[in-house]
Task: inverse folding
């Protein structure tokens, strides 16, 4: 057996052990990342690359949500592998969204928060989304309302109200991110929340919550009692 064949045999044996550990439910998060890379890069030993990526991004969700340019900036990660990661990220988004389509959002708020993280963690600019809900608090539509800069995105109350009427929404959830760091709702965020709540209230549409993704933390205006007026 040549040296190259011997190395390939060792790699195959290691990958077989990883597959068995996965099937037995014993893989660590780092080993899951390594296993994913064996499918994306089948002809290379990916252990060192896995360690570098895990050290840089900290968790698999953080890695999957990273922008393409961040992923391809890593030595050993080309466009095909980065695309593989982004496809996995899209599958996560679809899984969380399907839960919101089929059951009231308050039945599993964790799924809603995970959906928000999947949408917005890793984004380099501020985005503002509106989730329109039916009378059973199931998701009708998630609309990207605006995309701005690192610390600002426009909010057009008239457009949100019009869309709520167009889709026959019973309530809505506001959602945006703070790409610049771990900061809670700004004074401007609170003001626009209250203005939209008042505008919707006149049409008997409720503002169910305003969620903020900051770092990997989810802030809820509802839980912070910023919407107490609508809960009376």
Result:
């Amino acid at each position: 057996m040549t040296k190259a064949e011997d190395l390939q045999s060792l790699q195959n044996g290691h990958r077989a052990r990883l597959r068995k550990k996965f099937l037995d439910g014993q893989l660590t998060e780092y080993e899951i990342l390594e296993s994913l890379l064996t499918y994306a890069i089948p002809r290379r030993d990916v252990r060192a690359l896995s360690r570098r990526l895990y050290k840089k991004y900290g968790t698999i969700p953080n890695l999957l949500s990273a922008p393409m340019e961040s992923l391809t900036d890593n030595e050993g990660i080309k466009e095909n592998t980065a695309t593989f990661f982004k496809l996995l990220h899209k599958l996560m988004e679809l899984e969380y969204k399907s839960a919101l389509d089929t059951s009231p959002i308050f039945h599993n708020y964790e799924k809603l928060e995970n959906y928000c993280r999947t949408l917005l963690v890793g984004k380099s600019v501020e985005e503002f989304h509106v989730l329109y809900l039916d009378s059973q608090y199931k998701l009708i539509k998630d609309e990207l309302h605006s995309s701005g800069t690192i610390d600002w995105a426009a909010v057009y109350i008239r457009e949100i109200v019009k869309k709520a009427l167009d889709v026959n929404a019973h309530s809505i959830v506001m959602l945006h991110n703070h790409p610049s760091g771990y900061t809670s709702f700004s004074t401007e965020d609170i003001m626009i929340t209250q203005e939209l709540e008042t505008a919707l209230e006149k049409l008997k549409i409720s503002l169910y919550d305003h969620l903020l993704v900051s770092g990997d933390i989810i802030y809820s205006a509802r839980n912070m009692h910023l919407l107490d007026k609508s809960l009376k």
